[in-house]
Design a protein that fits this description.
The protein is mainly alpha-helical. Helices cover about 90% and strands about 0% of the residues.
């Protein structure tokens, strides 16, 4: 099953990007207030 590691890697990258975007939005909201 060679596709499994790539899926896990993609999931990890997606989570990291999601966390980054959430952090950016939170910082922007903080700046706006």
């Amino acid at each position: 099953y060679a596709s499994k590691p790539s899926i896990i890697r993609y999931a990890k990258i997606a989570l990291q990007l999601q966390n980054k975007t959430v952090r950016d939005v939170a910082l922007r909201c903080r700046w706006m207030t």
